[in-house]
Design a protein that fits this description.
The complex is a heterodimer of chains A (327) and B (226). Chain A has a domain at 88-95 and 109-279. Chain A is globular. In chain A, α2 packs across α3 (41-55) and α9 runs antiparallel to α13. Chain A has 14 helices and no strands. Chain A has helices spanning 4-21, 23-33, 41-55, 59-67, 78-82, 89-100, 108-113, 120-144, 158-189, 197-207, 211-217, 223-249, 254-279, 295-300. Chain A has 327 residues and is an all-alpha fold. With 226 residues, chain B is mainly alpha-helical. Chain B has a domain at 49-60 and 81-98 and 107-224. Chain B is built from nine helices and no strands. Chain B has helices at residues 2-8, 49-68, 75-78, 83-95, 111-131, 138-147, 150-162, 168-194, 203-222. In chain B, α5 (111-131) crosses α6. Chain B is elongated, with a radius of gyration of 33 Å. Chain B starts with a helix and ends with a helix. Classes of the chains: A mainly alpha (327), B mainly alpha (226).
Chain lengths: 327, 226
Amino acid sequence: MASPKDLQFQEFEEAAELLSADPGASTLSMSANAPFATVGASTAGEDVRLDVSEDEEGQEESSELLGEQKPSGGFWTFEYYQSFFNVDTLQVLDRVKGSVMPLPGRNFIKHYLRSNPDLYGPFWICMTLVFSVAISGNLSTFLRQMGNSSYHYRPQFHRVTIAAIAIFLYAWLVPVGLWAFLTWRQGAERQIGGYSFLETVCVYGYSLFIFIPTSILWIIPLEWLQWALIVVAMVISGSVLVLTFWPVVRDDSKVMAVGTVMTILVLHALLAIGCKLYFFQTPVQTPSSPLTPTAPLYFFQTPVQTPSSPLTPTAPVNYTNLTVKPH
Amino acid sequence: MASAQEASRPFAAFSDVSIPEDIPVEGDISVPVAPSTRDDGLSTLDEPVKETVLRDLRAVGNKFVHVLYPKRSSVLLRDWDLWGPLLLCVTLALLLQGGAADSNDQGGPQFAEVFVIVWFGSIVITLNSKLLGGTLSFFQSLCVLGYCIMPLTVAMAVCRVVLFTTVETVGFAVRLLVVTASFGWSTFASTAFLADSQPANRKALVVYPVFLFYFVIGWMILTFSP
């Protein structure tokens, strides 16, 4: 009758044989198995073997397949959504730091998200950005009008609603469109390495973080400083996005690759410039002749209400028709 | 033969068992009567209405006192109720009315906007803390967040009183001080109740939305201009 000690020794020998056969594979399985604490000794052998077969197709795919944590349960259970909030404070701070300091060669998704995209960052960064843009815009309007004796302070609370709609639509619809487009191209090209929908939303959300301090600094009423801040913020934020998406699209045809990246950057720039122009108005002395209430001129009207000319009602702004009047 | 006899009378061995007469057989066959409805803690049908209303008011008042002196007690959490938050939210929204009456879109928040911000803000923060792995129940968290608006409502009342004076900068400085103090108090009080229910490595993730929530409410109070 085999004693338990013999059985233990046999298992170890089998694992040792596999280890000697392919030492590289075992380390992969060890690191990938770390989050899966419930893997028993009997399945360790199977995982090692699985690793050997996956190793031929590339390290990335195996790490993706074994490291990715599939959300548990269906989408109607609470645990499904809880898997999107599986982050600690330090992880969130680390990702924020990565979005502010993009280094070439560091793909945000691969380096910081590591198959654990979260929804906490994008959602609360968007919320903070909404309120920071609205509040800073209100403060900047107040500071500009401080010398004006006829100016009566207004909280302009409707701007919060407009900011919320604009920012949340951007941060959630553009990733949807981009992900759908990339998945369609991936499907056509049979490439591996596309990003999941959550990772796209995550990288867009974190890339908006730089606009929070930028919007606070926009209170300073210096025109050149505001445009310089936009340029800096666009460079940082845009490079996070470009560094993330360029490795995916560069295998595509040149035209499509450059076109995709340019579209990403242009949409991002439209958001930044639109926010700056709508919320942080530069008071231009409007001439006394009555002006037609077109959208660009609305931006440059001061908030002082003259009794004879009622302000045009706030219409939703069509950013693509924006024409900037030169100073 | 003997076995057949024994088979036909299987219980013959027990024929000499007899029940002694002197062991009494006792029992109670009375049907238990239904308990009388005069049960002290459960039946409130017979009490006067004043008593019923006062009990709830006392509970609400008790929780207000707990917000004033935030200790780590479980009374606020155990017996949650949403009367206090509703009262505070309506009071705050009413006090925020009457400002910027001339222009309809450049003014402060409307009544519905205040309501939406307070209630949907609380719900979002509660969902956030539950998704991050918190142990408080949904309504307990709503209760805590709602009751901790009380310092800000008091600050709003003080601000409205201060705004009756026409001294601009001094009045503004006083309002800023009062709103900042009450914002800090609200955040401190609510984190005293909420932070315990979170795992240690996610406390800041839960506290930050609460900070943002009270900051926005404080901003609405500070920028109120009649």
